[in-house]
Amino acid sequence: MTYALTDAALSALLANAAGDELLRVRRESGLEGKELGKAGDAAAQALLAGLLAEHRPDDAVLSEEAKDSEARLSADRVWIIDPLDGTREYSEGRADWAVHIALWERGELTLGAVGIPGEELVLVSDTVAPAPAPADGAQISLAVSRSRPPAVTEPVREALDASLLPMGSAGVKIAAVVRGQVDAYVHAGGQYQWDSAAPVAVARAAGLHTSRIDGSPLVYNDADPYLPDLVVCRPELAPRILAAIAENTDGDS
């Protein structure tokens, strides 16, 4: 089938449109806190669902904000989306939240777009630049949750003698590795496929290492959407990070 928009162009359109809608809701709704977060989630989901139904009516969708369907398990193409990653940061008026748009095809992620509306930025896997090399002699840095840093972070920080940079959503953290703002992001203790699919697709396109914390592949469009842990880092750091995790944790925290 021939579409008016390529998948890459559509992913960028979706990320931009949802970002604009989320900013509008935050600016105009008069809501605060959890109510603002709920309104933003709902508005972005409705917009994305409508655009996907219009532009890719035959594709399946897995979204944090919509009821799952077993139909996606037999589909060749599945959009994996998180309309608002970092609801807490969004509701607090911060900029470190994101919109995730990923496309999975026949067993693999083939496309990802991560929108960071607070910075007027969209990273798309087909155009993202290679992750920049660190400055000579620079201390290694790790992105870490500003509200719920996992226990796995400390052994990795110690093994690498790294500094920590707290920030919001998973998409923003992985984008920070892609952009060279930090060298790695390590998470364990709970995420879902929509939390990482789009940023992982972008990270892979930028030449970064992506895996589970035991080094196994990240699998998407699985029957169970739970995907609790990941490592995204510069490739040369992966052996040290994975070894530190294996030596110092049981993988459960």
From TrEMBL:
The UniProt catalytic activity note for this protein reads: adenosine 3',5'-bisphosphate + H2O = AMP + phosphate
Per UniProt, which keywords does this protein have?
Magnesium, Metal-binding
Provide an example Pfam family for this protein: Inositol_P
Among SUPFAM superfamilies, the record links this protein to: Carbohydrate phosphatase
Q: Which PROSITE patterns match?
A: IMP_1 (PS00629)
Top-level lineage group: Bacteria
A single GO BP annotation from the record? sulfate assimilation
**Entry GO MF terms:** 3'(2'),5'-bisphosphate nucleotidase activity; metal ion binding
Q: Per UniProt, where does Mg(2+) bind?
A: 64, 82, 84-85, 195
Q: Which cofactor does it need?
A: Mg(2+)
Q: What is this protein called?
A: 3'(2'),5-bisphosphonucleoside 3'(2')-phosphohydrolase
